[in-house]
Amino acid sequence: MESKNPVFSRSRQQTGGWAGPSPSPAQLQNMYDSPSYAPPTRPAYRTMTLDDVVVRGFLTLGTLVVAAAASWVLNVPPMVAIGAAVVALILGLIASFTQSTNPALILGYALFQGVFMGKISSVFDGLISGIVLQAVLGTAFAFGAVLAVYTLRIIRVTPKLVKFGIAAAIAVVGLLLVNMLVGLFNDGGLGLRTDSPIGWVFSIVMILVGCFFLLLDFDSIEQGVRQGAPEKFAWQCAFGLTLSLVWIYLEVLRFIHYFSSSD
Questions:
Q1: Lowest CB count within 10 Å: 24, 193, 246, 256, which one?
Q2: CA within 13 Å, CB half, 127
Q3: Best CA proximity match to 81, nearest among 106, 118, 108, 107
Q4: pLDDT digits (tens, 9 = 90+) for 126-139
Q5: Of residues 85, 139, 90, 75, the one with CA closest to residue 113
């Protein structure tokens, strides 16, 4: 009758009366010998370092520069350069929105973008001798200045700064589209891309937006290294740097052209 008493049965469960059989001496010895703490397993990938970004950056920029030099020397037809620009735009959008780390995709972007930049640089240099060298030096100066500002923490990348920066970038892109549409009916559009005070100011704004994206690139690299991002993420960082430098170079080239052509 004792086994049918629910109170007695519950008391036996709570005191371990229904526990399994007691471990043997050998099992106890194995439990004693097993480690009490297992160290965490290492990640299955190698984490990204700053050297990885530098190497991928040189490969990406090197591909762009070589393609640009070949395009300049071979004097590719304008339609080929425009086609390369369209392909570069498509590849760049894919790499940006998918955050791709595929080396073929990123190097392909650099290749086609280089063909376009080589052609447009040769056109500008044909109009004003030495302007390309000035634009390259101006881009290098902008890169060094932004790097110094970021390294010295003169400007910190905060969520509020990112929000305002992205809003400004969307605004200038929207103005460019409106300027193109208006240009279909009115010569010069809104005047954003003309040799005028409005064009000068807008070009300066575009250069500053490019510098802002360069600031974001530096922060992305630092955060990726600090948080242990996988090695392949270095390709995305290299792509971001290349994209920002192309933006700045083209805007500096246009800005110098305004004042050189007016002399």
A1: 24
A2: 17
A3: 118
A4: 888 889 999 999 99
A5: 85
| Separation CA 113–CA 115 (nearest Å) | 5
For residues 5 and 9, give the distance between their C-alpha atoms in angstroms, rounded to a whole number.
6
Q: Which two three-digit tokens encode residue 246? A: 């192309």
pTM: 0.79
Torsion on CA atoms 106, 111, 117, 123, rounded to nearest 10: -170
Tokens 């990726």 identify what position? 224
In angstroms, the CA 185 to CA 141 distance is 38
DSSP 40-93: PPPPSSPBP-HHHHHHHHHHHHHHHHHHHHHHHHHT--HHHHHHHHHHHHHHHH
Question: Alpha-carbon distance 227 to 247, whole Å?
Answer: 28
Radius of gyration of the chain (CA): 30
> Which amino acid is present at 143?
F
Residue 21's pLDDT is: 57
pLDDT of residue 4 exceeding 80: no
φ, ψ (nearest 5 deg) of residue 47: -75, 155
The torsion angles phi and psi of 225, rounded to 5 degrees, stand at: -65, -45
